[in-house]
Amino acid sequence: MELVARFLELPAGSCFLFGPRGTGKSTWLRHLVPDALYIDLLRPEVYREMSARPERLRELLLGQPKRTTVVVDEVQRVPELLSVAHEVIESASPRRFVLTGSSARKLRRGGVDLLGGRALLRTLHPFMAAELPSFGLDQALQHGLLPLVIAAPDPAAVLAAYATLYLEQEVQVEGWVRNVGGFARFLEAISFSHASVLNAANVARECQAERRTIAGYVEVLEDLLLGFRLPVFRRRAQRETVSHPKFYLFDAGVFRSLRPSGPLDRPEAIEGAALEGLVAQHLRAWQAYSSPEAEVCFWRTRSGVEVDFVVYGAAGFWAIEVKNGRRVYPEDLRGLKAFRAEYPECTPVLLYRGEDRLLVEGVRCLPVESFLRSLRPGRGVVEGA
Length: 385
Prior knowledge:
Elements: E1 15-18, H1 25-32, E2 37-40, H2 44-52, H3 56-63, E3 69-73, H4 81-89, E4 96-101, H5 105-110, E5 120-123, H6 137-143, H7 147-150, H8 155-174, H9 180-190, E6 196-197, H10 200-207, H11 211-223, E7 227-230, E8 246-249, H12 252-258, H13 267-289, E9 294-300, E10 306-313, E11 316-322, H14 334-342, E12 347-352, E13 358-360, E14 363-367, H15 368-374
């Protein structure tokens, strides 16, 4: 697969670059900074050397003074290297560090603050549709948008092995959970909560585990950047809203690989959750790559009236509902009309699987594929709104 240009802009100074495995951090950096000094902590011999003597990083830099940029891949594996990096950044001959990671868990515990705020934080997400000239909605819903998967000859096989990769290389090796088998069952159970309000008690009941254990598993999933929670929009709230956040796995393909299906599972329900998740991951990437920042939330009242996404910030104010149908029905607009009644400043948008751009009762109805293709950082969520 040819290298695809990404919307993320690498800062001129030092930064942390987070992103789940398979988002292409290393490949992208080798293209952007080919002359950098690379420290790949996934290589066993490099990991052993740096774990035993973190000061070896300083020696490597002294021996290669012309390498002004240093890339440390998967820095969370040896957090002690942050002390050396901090010392070099403050020295008379500072270097630019790009510290990549697929987990923030060990860094949070191991001292990310040692850099004293001198390194910015950036996140690389799966591809956005606008980054891919050959983007196809059906393919994205089935296999997701992870570069690792898209580049594979057999995307389904790579997705099937993806969860195992994390179980073996992250969760088990780092000892983050005591019961790896229990965590594997949790991954399947949590897939039923994708694009839904998260209820840890229900997931615990499904896994036959304590609620506290499940809450810890959800935190591990977020630390591994495999899942995220969407908060409730409560600004100037007049109606009573729910208190629990919604949960999403970070990629539609990963969701499909974890979500079991059988005679009792409706295919349209699974595809609907995949479509909503695909929109969610795009909005999250748009949020991460854009400036100024914006909030991405959802809205749901105690009576069950809901809007899938609320985007609020300096760029604008949008309420977005996602429907998997190819036609727009009056009941599809119920949540958006209720939200607009409470927040008349918003622009209500309905995304659906049809092909026509419509205006129905003051609500913009857009084909979801064209919406995803047009979503770009630095622009409004909906052009012209």
